[in-house]
Amino acid sequence: MIKENLAYVEEQITKACERSGRNREEVTLIAVSKTKPVSLVDEAIDNGIREFGENKVQEIMDKYDTVKAPVNWHMIGHLQRNKVKYIVDKVCLIHSVDSYRLAEMIDQEAAKKGVKCDILIEVNIAKEDTKYGVMEDEVIPLIEQISKLTNIRIKGLMTIAPFVEYSEKNRVHFRNLRNLYVDIKTKNIDNVDMKILSMGMTNDYVVAIEEGATMVRVGTGIFGQRN
Ligand SMILES: *Cc1c(COP(=O)(O)O)cnc(C)c1O
Fold first, then answer.
1. Across the chain, how many H-helices and E-strands are there?
2. Is 185:147 a contact under the CB 8 Å cutoff?
3. How far is CA 75 from CA 78, 80, 92, 113, 182, in A?
4. What is the pLDDT of residues 29-76, one digit of tens each?
5. Model's pTM, two decimal places?
6. Of 1.10.287.110, 3.20.20.10, 3.20.20.70, 3.40.50.12240, which CATH number belongs to 36-197?
7. How many whole angstroms from 64 Cα to the centroid of ligand 1?
8. Best mutation site among 57, 73, 76 for ligand 1 pocket (most ligand atoms within 8 Å of CB)
9. DSSP secondary-structure letter at 22?
10. Domain boundaries, the chain
């Protein structure tokens, strides 16, 4: 099942890249394995996947210990400050930084572990009440502030677009995030290396790629429905 799902997703990614004149290598597929057992993670690994996304600290810790193959773990969910210490040296990228206080904690814990931590700023691009993430007009001031923390490297932006029936509806949000990303890149802020745009999930990753996503986070489309 996973093999077929991955083949389908891969084909969609390739076609979206072709349509938008992009190289397939510009887009990284992150398989979102949250709530799914390690047996399915292993199956995805057997089919060539090396990037996995999880939204809970405990689950990252468990899978980090259990999965034997060398893979990269991405923290994509809301992160509490008191849990940063458990994952700062286990994940390759934290996608969900949305406050200076959280960034400060990541910086401190990274220093203790002697690592540099790569992060993305989560943006609430559609201004939804129910979502985490910073509002568009707060992003640049926040990045300027976080850029002074020496154990953190800001790599880009992330968003979770609204749940919509037709993915076309999210195109405007992806485009807005891309524009913000380009604005920040142009500013050449010290210690900020904008190269990752993490946007698009099972329902809308094709549109996200057409609008410039460099990482897409696909769960259901690979592993099937979650309970
Ligand atoms: C669960 C989750 C995904 C994957 O969602 P699907 O719709 O199953 O593809 C992507 N990003 C984040 C932040 C998530 O929490």
1. 9, 8
2. no
3. 8, 12, 8, 18, 24
4. 999 999 999 999 999 999 999 999 999 999 999 999 999 999 999 999
5. 0.98
6. 3.20.20.10
7. 19
8. 76
9. -
10. 36-197
